[in-house]
Amino acid sequence: MAAEWRVYLSGEIHTDWRHEIAEGTKAAGLDIAYSAPVTDHGASDDCGVAILGAEPDKFWHDRKGAGVNAIRTRTLIEKADVVVVRFGDKYKQWNAAFDAGYAAALGKPLIILHPPEHAHALKEVDEAASAVAQTPAQVVEILRYVIRGELPDRQRAAAE
Amino acid sequence: MAAEWRVYLSGEIHTDWRHEIAEGTKAAGLDIAYSAPVTDHGASDDCGVAILGAEPDKFWHDRKGAGVNAIRTRTLIEKADVVVVRFGDKYKQWNAAFDAGYAAALGKPLIILHPPEHAHALKEVDEAASAVAQTPAQVVEILRYVIRGELPDRQRAAAE
Amino acid sequence: MAAEWRVYLSGEIHTDWRHEIAEGTKAAGLDIAYSAPVTDHGASDDCGVAILGAEPDKFWHDRKGAGVNAIRTRTLIEKADVVVVRFGDKYKQWNAAFDAGYAAALGKPLIILHPPEHAHALKEVDEAASAVAQTPAQVVEILRYVIRGELPDRQRAAAE
Amino acid sequence: MAAEWRVYLSGEIHTDWRHEIAEGTKAAGLDIAYSAPVTDHGASDDCGVAILGAEPDKFWHDRKGAGVNAIRTRTLIEKADVVVVRFGDKYKQWNAAFDAGYAAALGKPLIILHPPEHAHALKEVDEAASAVAQTPAQVVEILRYVIRGELPDRQRAAAE
Amino acid sequence: MAAEWRVYLSGEIHTDWRHEIAEGTKAAGLDIAYSAPVTDHGASDDCGVAILGAEPDKFWHDRKGAGVNAIRTRTLIEKADVVVVRFGDKYKQWNAAFDAGYAAALGKPLIILHPPEHAHALKEVDEAASAVAQTPAQVVEILRYVIRGELPDRQRAAAE
Amino acid sequence: MAAEWRVYLSGEIHTDWRHEIAEGTKAAGLDIAYSAPVTDHGASDDCGVAILGAEPDKFWHDRKGAGVNAIRTRTLIEKADVVVVRFGDKYKQWNAAFDAGYAAALGKPLIILHPPEHAHALKEVDEAASAVAQTPAQVVEILRYVIRGELPDRQRAAAE
Amino acid sequence: MAAEWRVYLSGEIHTDWRHEIAEGTKAAGLDIAYSAPVTDHGASDDCGVAILGAEPDKFWHDRKGAGVNAIRTRTLIEKADVVVVRFGDKYKQWNAAFDAGYAAALGKPLIILHPPEHAHALKEVDEAASAVAQTPAQVVEILRYVIRGELPDRQRAAAE
Amino acid sequence: MAAEWRVYLSGEIHTDWRHEIAEGTKAAGLDIAYSAPVTDHGASDDCGVAILGAEPDKFWHDRKGAGVNAIRTRTLIEKADVVVVRFGDKYKQWNAAFDAGYAAALGKPLIILHPPEHAHALKEVDEAASAVAQTPAQVVEILRYVIRGELPDRQRAAAE
């Protein structure tokens, strides 16, 4: 029972967790189309003014960029079958939580990925999720199980 | 008038009715993409803890697994054109009835498949269905008619 | 600007208007995926009992068949980009008007096709339509214009 | 458990079935807000031109009126909890079938009211309905049961 | 911050849990409009034939009744802010699970109420719920907290 | 042109900004029904276990509470006409950002309230908002203008 | 059959057409709740900066105001049963056409009000409308007919 | 992360801005499926009567054409991921503003393209947009960034 899945990877952009997940599912032979926000921090901050002209006021500098980024992020979240949101160690990451809320209201299954020390602060976000993982490897296993019905130590296709 | 149909097969997992339907429509030359829950009972029960870590409390053990399974089942039900739900002889099968309600609220055409002795207990579920069948062979015939316009004893393509 | 269009052809099943439209758009080089109800009147009436077992009461005989047909018709109407509904000279054709109302509530663009003498009786249906045609050839021209931007006497692609 | 119900009465306008239902549920002490199309046939036909100016072409005369009537009918159908559609003995009544399809696509519970001789011609419409009645008195009883849980010969409030 | 809440109480109809919840929230001074299916088992089974005429075949006897009941249950579930579904000790209760699935797909917050021994069989249903309770008294407390912000042992209004 | 508005006040719970806004619009004579999450931090954290039983694992302690709180917060956000989200100086406040994303996906007009130093970190959230304010007094003025058409220094009703 | 209707009056703000319509329906005894954008041109232009602080760049001055106005206009359009959009003689009036498109996509019945000389330029907008009027008095008559079933020269309640 | 994007180009039809954008993104190697209204002004005006028969009254001549055009425009807007609306120097362009409102209500990301002198008149439309551009080249850069994460002067793929 073949299935093509689209997975959006939202949140933290300073580690290579997206790569890790993509490599992991590729190694497992899964056919997943990943999407994500632009992960070049500088480009993401400056895209608005770089394309549409400079703004002396930082607030509107940011607004212009956020508008352009939203074209990408909201379109891809709406096209996704599953949304994974990772919260890292640094920064406020309010856009990650915003994406989680946005995806939840659209009825998208959510996988939240964060270190255990953020559990209490993320309890409302975790509650809206279908799964809460701590490592990219766990996300790989969730996707493998969800798409193929295979579990880590069993290696047998359960869902044919 | 070619059509690609997606059919989700929900419910009972202890007989090979899914295989029977898939073989039947394949033999009839139909192009149907089937999907289903993970039908390995053990994998379905333990997927949460196998991937995300053990839980001492059975309630949360079950919750973790149910969350992971829901990523699969709800996504595939939402993508389906038709949802078939089979009620077998054993177990409570509340998840089957839940899927039927879920699919009904999404406006998916439902085919309910059950032995005649369950008819009274399933009357609300059957009422929400477009067809109530007793055998996988009948489901095959429904799908053949719906997609091709062919009836069992007529063998002629009615809908060209 | 290529576009694949899906057109559902609802209503009257006793003349070959569907064939006429399909041939017309094919001759014009349009890429349209047509769908329709099962147009074999006898099959459409008897599909329920032929597959699911005889009913002594004609009302339930009809109900069984109507349920099976609805799996096809509603699924295909929901997948269609445009719904064409033809009212012919005979019968009550309430299912055609039902389909028109169903499609209208889903926001599907409607083309209603009927002889001029039905205009007053169909005024509410026509009002919900984007176009009211009298001949299949007009429907062909509408589809050609809508998809390619070509008009009958102009033969030039307006929308590239 | 008090409930205010809104019921839209669509279809045939030449007998006093609406009055009969309204009187019946009033006598039963039910609190129902009824709505309906304009049932003055002449007014319904001419409202467009009477307000917005004459049209020499009957087709556009009808279109203008149908547009004005649609403001009323679609708004009230969308506000209704239940839609009753009556098919009478005369006329094409395509607007009644259109309303039924429109309401069905909006997910409104439908009660279809028609004499038994129309059963075959209305089989698709009946299939989309929650109940098929033959008399206004039956519709009164359905509404009484649905709102109060009372059955004709039992007279006891079942649903408190 | 006053709020009027509507709560639908689905499921088991052989104990007085609905009464218990309604009394409990009334004692707590909450303003809740409760709704429910018809809880007179006999009336619920026979409403179709009692109003619309007898059916010799039990299957269609049930279908007629289920259609009439669905007018009530689906309308009230769609109007509800919160849906409580109770699973008792007896019967298949597939309609309860169906209601839970239906409400979940509509995005209604679910409270599932069942004895602990049903936990494993209900794991998919529980996973879709915002809360899983074991006693009507707990449901009362949940509603009190949700509407007023008051907890059992604190007695102070938290949400002014 | 009277209007009853419902405004949900999400986010920071350690200052009395909600009271300030409510008092301000009351003083201005506006008729607004405010709603909010439970703002007693301790109650909000412990409501799950206080009602449904203790959990040894903090993660499930939090999950139980978050589920109960979500019944309140999502219901009230969905009923609101306008959602105001305040970000304060402390804590991660991911639930505030989650609420903003949730409300945005539902199409609710958003007013974001935060001190200027959070502007860059909140740029995606601000972009989704109709207005970004720095003080509760500004929110009062926005609501006064939106409902009455009155501006601070003009004091004249513009929208009669 | 009493009905409370909500009508949004969009577009041109330099003549007293809103007052004329409101007076007309009041004189006819209709119970209509009207809503509208803020019609004080200066207030509408400056509301953003008056409340949230000055902007040196006119573009952002306008953006701030447009955001605040959108809270009002979109909320009220979504709550309306019918949307009337008037195009006057002056200005670009793109916001009026925007409102018409917005209301059309939400499925709101539209009445477009404009002098005959704008007919060609407004043909796409008029096509999306249920009625096209030239005078406020005609809008009064449409609303009277739609709500009461009364026509100008007939004075009889058709829809009781 | 491959993505196929569909972009609808609405509005002004007298310059070759659509061609310019399509060429620009093609040169950048982007895979975009563009769609647009029929841009042959004469064909667009006359399509209704050319296909469905002449109308003596210009109003209905226009209505017939607008209906046929709407089949194309609304279908393509609904299929689009992004909608670009250009306002030029001439004409009322109310259909462009209508399309913008229509797309906004559907939740489509909007890019508005107009010369700076129209900024004040378009402030409500611009406010609903994710980006406001002045040149087709800027739209090309926005699409390149949104799809590939590349900025004009950086030339590096940020989003792999």
Task: Describe the 3D structure.
Eight copies of one chain form a homooctamer. With 160 residues, chain A is an alpha/beta fold. Helix content of chain A is 47%, strand content 14%. Chain A has helices spanning 17-27, 41-52, 58-79, 94-105, 123-127, 136-148; strands at residues 5-11, 32-35, 82-86, 110-113, 131-133. Chain A has a five-stranded parallel β-sheet, sandwiched between helices. The first copy, chain A, starts with a strand and ends in a 12-residue tail after the last helix. Chains A and F meet through helix 3, helix 4 and helix 5 of A and helix 3, helix 4 and helix 5 of F.
Helix content of chain A: 40-55%
Low-confidence stretches of chain A at least 5 residues in length (pLDDT < 50)? 155-160
What's the β-strand tally of chain A?
Answer: 5
Global structural class of chain A: alpha/beta
Largest interface in this structure: A-F, 38 and 38 residues
Strand adjacency order, main sheet of chain A: 2-1-3-4-5
Count of DSSP-assigned helices of chain A: 6
Series of secondary-structure elements of chain A, N-terminal to C-terminal = EHEHHEHEHEH
What would you call the shape of chain A?
globular
What's the quaternary structure here?
A: homooctamer
N-C termini distance of chain A: 6 Å
